[in-house]
Write a structure and sequence with these properties.
Layout: H1 2-34, H2 46-66, H3 73-101, H4 105-117
Helix pairs in contact: 1-3, 1-4, 2-3, 2-4, 3-4
Length: about 130
């Protein structure tokens, strides 16, 4: 029974973290959308683009591995948190780029991508079913 209680506690924690990440990304996107960024869009920065692609892939892969039916519950929680962290980091990267360049376009795109990756609540125990 303690395993079921631990799983329920982990799910509550993940739901809370999910809401926090969605709130953060929404606030970042609104700040970029409503902010006064009047510079033209800069040329693509290869390092920032590589970092953004890496964070996006990490969010996808970590979420996928967390939903595997063969993974231990503690590992599934860790991977789910990593997926949410990667999505949040993508939004933060976008905001930093916008602040650095004075243009909101690329930053807003990165932030919205992070929001899309964080939309679904991680369900690391969904494939397993109860008990």
């Amino acid at each position: 029974m303690s395993t079921e209680a631990e799983i329920e506690s982990a799910q509550r924690t993940l739901r809370g973290m999910h809401k926090a990440v969605l709130s953060l990304l929404t606030l970042l996107a609104l700040n970029l959308f409503l902010g006064e960024f009047d510079e033209p869009s800069p040329p693509p920065d290869p390092q920032a683009t590589t970092a953004a692609v890496g964070l996006a892939l990490a969010a996808i892969l970590l979420r996928r591995f967390a939903s595997s039916p063969t993974i231990r519950p503690s590992s599934a929680v860790f991977l789910s948190v990593g997926a949410l962290f990667s999505a949040a980091a993508l939004g933060v990267l976008g905001t930093l780029l916008a602040l650095e360049s004075g243009s909101a376009e690329t930053g807003l795109l990165f932030t919205l991508a992070g929001l899309i990756f964080a939309l679904r609540v991680p369900r690391p125990f969904g494939a397993r079913g109860p008990g």
